[in-house]
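Researcher: Structure for this, please.
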Amino acid sequence: MYAVFKRELFSFLSSMVAYITIGIFLLVSSLLLWFFPNTSLLDYGYAELGGFFSLVPYLFMFLIPAITMRSFAEERREGTYELLITKPITLWQIIIAKYLASLVLVLFALIPTLVYYYSISELGFPKGNIDSGAVIGSYIGLFLLGSAFTSIGIFASSLTKNQVIAFVICAGLCAFAFLGFDYTGQLITLQKFENTITALGINEHYVSISRGVLDTRDLIYFVSFSIVFLLFTKLIMGGKK
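Model: Predicted structure, token format:
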């Protein structure tokens, strides 16, 4: 399992795609945080990262599909998947290894954004005037959100040999999982069930954790969400095997 994890991680890091993808993510998040008029913290005037954490989920809808789209799609396109499944390793271990490797890449993309926290802490008056608890909670929420989106990406990659199609499927599923339940619950005919339907979506639980309060219900939701999509991946790949 470790060999597959290492191979998956280093194969991505050895290509320019990794650096371009993560670089674009950091560039866009920096522009949104510091320069764009409607989202700039310098115009907002308060030492807090709420705007950043509300924008990153939308950037994740493009970053994570770009990271995960090659997981199984490239293996099947190049014919290396057949070689992989002949190794003394179970299908479940292959899926977990690829999932963890992609999740590490998401973590690599998040780590440089800690500079934003340091910068805002220094710019605050007085220095350090920032709600660190809320920031920590929001980063935990981002990591859990990334883990959920990554499980969707692994599943999408198992559906096709075409990486572009895998990207589109993942982006669409991530958008629906994050926003779809909120919009569905607001339909006139479903308003009596709005709270129940909204609770099924990712956004409700992400916002809850971002407040800085770690609720076991939210943690269970994200873990269960990831497990369900990894199980879907196992069913798909098991059938093709």
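Researcher: Any notable elements?
Model: The longest helix spans residues 132-158. Residues 2-240 form one domain.
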